[in-house]
Amino acid sequence: MKLWAGRFHKELDDKVNDFNSSISFDSRMFREDITGSMAHAAMLAKQGIVSEEDGRRIRDGLAGILADIDEGRLEIDRSAEDIHTFIEGELTARIGDAGKRLHTGRSRNDQVALDLRLHLKNLAAPLREQLLSLVRVLAEKALENADVIMPGYTHLQRAQPITFGHHLMAYAEMLTRDVGRLDDAVKRMDVSPLGSGALASTTYPLDRDFAAVQLGMSGVTHNSLDGVADRDYAVELAAVLSLVMVHLSRFSEEIILWCSWEFKFIELDDAFSTGSSIMPQKKNPDIAELVRGKSGRVFGDLMGLLTVLKGLPLAYNKDMQEDKEAIFDAFDTVRMCLTAFVPMIETMKPLPENMRRAAAGGFINATDCADYLVGKGLPFRDAYKATGELVARCIDQGLTLETLPLQDYRQVCPLFDEGVFEAIALERCAALRRVYGGPAPENVRAQAERVLKLVKEAEK
Ligand code: ARG
Fold first, then answer.
1. Own/partner pairs for 370-375, CB < 8 Å, 24+ apart?
2. How close is the Cα of 368 to the center of ligand 1, in Å?
3. d(CA 173, CA 269)
4. What is the mean pLDDT of residues 291-295?
5. In whole angstroms, how large is the CA radius of gyration of the chain?
6. Do 413 and 373 touch, CB atoms closer than 8 A?
7. How many CA atoms are closer than 13 Å to the CA of 223, on its beta-carbon side?
8. CB-based contacts of 430: which residues, under 8 Å, 6+ apart?
């Protein structure tokens, strides 16, 4: 029997019942639904809208239901319309008339809006911890690898010398911003829509602030139509999660490249790699590939949410029931990705010799060679041209700037002397890039320490 059965002459068709029902995916909000109802009941009693006695009965009844679900004594009925209906029905079955008074001055529209806000807040907290732990792992790895020379790339062509620690810290920066975005979205979401009713609030003298305080929320929504129709917070969170996936996916792409024999900059731990069913030699970076692949789902969730909302007139429309699977999937996916990704990064082994070898092979000190001539008084454009000629000579003779004889240098430009070899030594080229934000080992250490401190603060 439906909650709203009074007005109808027939039961809902079975096929439609399953189509209409959301319990298969909203049952996970049972805790928030119960917490929300407890706050509502406490408020109703405080305002004298229900008796103290009924208020107490409702709260005790709800507490019993929560304990029974938690301890596996009560199974959620999959044929119920949604979690709100199920819990209210169960409460009424347990405590009778008092249970029927719970929904006074409330609609499922403000109820579901509240439940979703509370549930997403509860999902955001552990995700934030996972992000912070990834940032911490990156900063720690950066400290260990502050001196490791590697080629930095543009266009996937070796470009200039950097340090591996610097490269890792670039991701720490992205993920730190993601934590900030998450905090921001949660802060905006953390207000109670309870009291918005179905759309037009209610004539009962509700104390909305009281209910919000009970729920540990920072305030209340200001417009009842917006209170029930707003899902911006789900979109914002999906956008934050999408950006997290962009970052993890870019990182994954690099991990995959670095694991290949073409690069071999890192070795993933066996526990975070997989083999092939036919090729005995294979060790595949499946986790990184899956993370890269799963980014698509999360972007899809964001697009789905945007599309559901874009044509909806105010206030509540059933289309909005589609919000949950999308945003839950986005959270679940990112959580799963991070659960595998963080220890994969933590256990990966950098191979500094291979990085150094790659760094030696791509003329990545050419800019430093040109800068050397600038130091001798040559304008940069002329120095750039002279160095280009040197690189061409190296390519012709199968040499590097380090192994090209001084004689060739002096033929191209008489300003060169022995000192050039010191000037183009890769370690020096990296160490001298100590402009704020640059890859010099001392900078990497300072940035890693700064970020580690930030993580500690954020974890408080
Ligand atoms: N299951 C619904 C949802 O997820 C709850 C709200 C139902 N309200 C309504 N008027 N049908 O959106």
1. 371/423, 372/416, 372/419, 372/420, 372/423, 372/424, 373/413, 373/415, 373/416, 375/423
2. 65
3. 25
4. 98
5. 30
6. yes
7. 6
8. 149, 161, 162, 163, 439, 440, 441
Distance 109 CA to ligand 1 centre (A): 6
| Nearest CA-CA partner of 441 in 453, 455, 426 | 426
Q: Give the nearest ligand 1 atom to 320 CA.
A: 12
Minimum CA distance residue for ligand 1 atom 12: 321
Backbone angles phi, psi at 278, to 5 degrees: -120, -35
Tell me the one-letter amino acid at 63.
A
316 within ligand 1 shell (Cβ under 6 A):
yes
Q: How far is the CA of 208 from the centre of ligand 1 (A)?
A: 21
Which token pair is 47? 């305002």
Do 139 and 455 contact (CB within 8 A), yes or no? yes
Alpha carbon nearest to ligand 1 atom 10, residue: 109
Residues annotated catalytic, as ranges: 155, 276
Instruction: Say how far apart CA 437 and CA 453 lie, in whole Å.
Output: 17
* 103 Cα–ligand 1 center, Å: 14
- Pairwise CA distance, residues 102 & 207, whole Å: 15
Q: How many residues does the chain have?
A: 460
If you search the block for the tokens 């190296």, which residue do you land on?
A: 394
Nearest atom in ligand 1 to the alpha carbon of residue 22 is 1
Q: Do residues 323 and 231 make contact, with C-beta atoms less than 8 angstroms apart?
A: yes
Amino acid at 451: V
Ligand 1 nearest-atom number relative to CA 116: 4
Q: Is the CB of 321 under 6 A from ligand 1?
A: yes
- Per-residue pLDDT tens digits for 426-456: 999 999 999 999 999 999 999 999 999 999 9
Residue whose CA lies nearest to ligand 1 atom number 3: 321
User: What average pLDDT is seen over the chain?
Assistant: 96
Rounded Cα distance between 65 and 384, Å, is 76
Taking the model in full, what pTM does it have? 0.94
